[in-house]
Amino acid sequence: MSKPKEDYSFWTKYKRYAGTEIMLYAIMIIGIILGIIIFS
Questions:
Q1: Rounded to the nearest 5 degrees, what angle is found at the Cα of 34, between the Cα atoms of 31 and 35?
Q2: Helix %, strand %, coil % of the chain (to 5)
């Protein structure tokens, strides 16, 4: 609850890496789907 300025800076840094994290999750999901199709 204390030091809201640090929270704002944290969110701004998180937004910068949010795009790369979404891409990594998308790649992982696609890889799982392909693995299920290959092994099924």
A1: 85
A2: 90, 0, 10
3-state secondary structure of 1: coil
- Amino acid letter at 6? E
CA–CA separation, 27 and 34 (whole Å): 10
Residue with tokens 């990594």: 24
The pTM assigned to this predicted structure is: 0.51
Q: Which residues contact 12 (CB under 8 A, 6 or more apart)?
A: none
pLDDT tens per residue across span 16-29: 777 788 889 999 99
